[in-house]
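Handout, page 2. Input:
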Amino acid sequence: MSFTLATWNINSVRLREGLVAKLMADEGPDVLCLQECKSPVDLIPVEQFRALGYHYMVARGQKGYNGVAIISKLPIADAGDRDFATLGHARHVAARLENGVVIHNCYVPAGGDIPDRALNLKFGQKLDFLTEMRDWFHGEKPSKAILVGDLNIAPREDDVWDHKALLKIVSHTPIEVEHFGAVMEAGGWTDVTRADIPAGKLYSWWSYRSPDWDAADKGRRLDHIWATGDIAKSAHSSRILRPVRGWLQPSDHAPVFATFDL
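Output:
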């Protein structure tokens, strides 16, 4: 079984319904994982997606904030969710493919602007969220699993436009990178994107604040695709669709793709 999976922080699925449909029509991933849907599940605009062949969806939502959805051409079954750090947010959902592969779709908290949990509650929540992910994977070792999403951390020096300049900026601080690595180690996860593209600058997010995001190119790789060790070598053809960031009224994230032969 071969399937292509994409992950994309859409920054409102209802506002950008047309962009989702365009990606589906142009690229046709078998499974599309969306974060920051900002919609209750019953208001996600599924009819246009179904018309494009995406007949299956597993999602968790809330009004105006957060929200994660797995939308698929392939049959999927709901595999539950976790409320990491007990935030009461719709930030995780899992779905199981017919071949037994479990896909986890995660939206890790951004963490605010100050990288100090004593001064910034949101930063503490982010670290706690990652710690609980780590502990879960320690306790229930995942297998035949894929984890994707906006994890809001750019871990490597070449995952940001300027390593030294961003060391004290939330998303690239050493403590966040350490927590990120602990989650990966606990689950035996492989960074599929970097296994395919091992070197060089690579970004999936560019700030709306930049007057010319493309020319300035001050990006970060915040969006990830991981796989457990038992299936990681089946992954290939990783890519980030940078041009999508330039679509009309875009998300500030670009979709990340990988193909699995299982």
